[in-house]
Task: inverse folding
């Protein structure tokens, strides 16, 4: 079900009709694209192409290596196109600014801004919004659209979408893993997606530099609030010491999250002019989206992110103070 909170909400059926009527489309997603961002946007390109729509993906930065096995042959660009499109379609992006520094010129490429997302914090900033917080991934929504458009999903599209679904559900372990997630998985595997190949590419092809970075990050582990809050951080010097890229910080938050008794896990990394915090909750009463919102960020109740300013210590104490407030709602 799509939330009808925004004025420009559209139904799945009407959105699939709109997509079918396009001749050209530019597809965008969020900065630091994760498998769901890549999976949903690149699969959207393939679905539209199958409908005779000339579609291209725009990425702010180069494709993450672990997703490149699934994207072969799909046209994408790293520069903002000059031409106009019938629509700009954005997937998995709660806040328009998360499209990157060029978000205004990207959206100026068309009068039709189609916002397809599953983040509860998405206010519906498009001219056409399909925001379904009950969908486990943006990739699941793209699958639903493909089915609504009667597109036969081929192996490559199925694996792109499966990668997004697998990653956003934490390999079917997070609270968004509902029967719908397995229904989508069933359709995708029937269409030829190989779960072992996708898992191999996403989780068992870790560069050595990433493993080194994990050992460094683990040395920063702090557990507080009676064992209910755990945090890790990484700064730029640690990245360069390990020869690791920003992409390789992904998943570090899970080391804090997996500790027994931890209700809120925090991972902080250095970004230009400050810090970026990733927050995870493992308790339905602890809403980290609310915490992220205090700092202008957002996401889901169980997984959210925000930017912080100042020194690491200042950033941490500001963040921990807000987390304390949400933890106070949970009796031990
Ligand atoms: Mn997602």
Result:
């Amino acid at each position: 079900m799509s939330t009808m909170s925004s004025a420009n909400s559209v139904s799945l059926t009407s959105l699939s009709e709109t997509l079918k009527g396009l001749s050209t489309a530019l597809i965008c997603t969020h900065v630091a694209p994760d498998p769901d961002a890549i999976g949903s946007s690149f699969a959207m390109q393939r679905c539209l192409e199958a409908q005779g729509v000339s579609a291209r993906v725009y990425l702010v930065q180069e494709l993450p290596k672990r997703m490149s096995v699934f994207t072969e042959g799909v046209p994408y660009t790293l520069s903002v196109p000059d031409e106009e499109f019938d629509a700009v379609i954005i997937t998995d992006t709660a806040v328009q600014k998360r499209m990157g520094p060029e978000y205004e010129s990207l959206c100026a490429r068309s009068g039709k801004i189609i916002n397809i997302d599953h983040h509860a914090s998405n206010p519906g900033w498009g001219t056409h919004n399909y925001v379904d917080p009950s969908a486990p991934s943006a990739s699941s929504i793209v699958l639903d659209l493909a089915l609504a458009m009667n597109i036969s999903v081929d192996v490559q599209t199925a694996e792109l979408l499966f990668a997004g679904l697998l990653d956003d559900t934490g390999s079917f372990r997070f609270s968004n893993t509902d029967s719908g997630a397995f229904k989508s998985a069933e359709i995708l595997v029937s269409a030829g997606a190989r779960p072992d190949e996708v898992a191999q590419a996403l989780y068992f092809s870790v560069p050595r530099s990433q493993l080194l970075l994990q050992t460094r990050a683990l040395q920063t582990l702090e557990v507080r609030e009676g064992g209910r809050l755990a945090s890790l951080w990484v700064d730029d010097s640690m990245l360069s010491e390990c020869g690791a890229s920003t992409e390789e910080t992904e998943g570090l938050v899970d080391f804090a999250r997996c500790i027994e008794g931890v209700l809120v896990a925090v991972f902080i990394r250095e970004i230009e002019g400050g810090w970026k915090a990733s927050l995870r909750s493992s308790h339905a009463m602890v809403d980290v989206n609310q915490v992220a919102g205090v700092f202008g960020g957002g996401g889901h109740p169980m997984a959210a992110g925000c930017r912080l300013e100042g020194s690491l210590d200042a950033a941490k104490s500001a963040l921990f103070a807000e987390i304390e407030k949400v933890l106070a709602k949970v009796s031990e």
User: Anything to note?
Assistant: The mean pLDDT is 95. Residues 36, 92, 118, 137-138, 168 surround manganese (II) ion (CB under 6 Å). The chain has two domains: 12-203, 208-327.
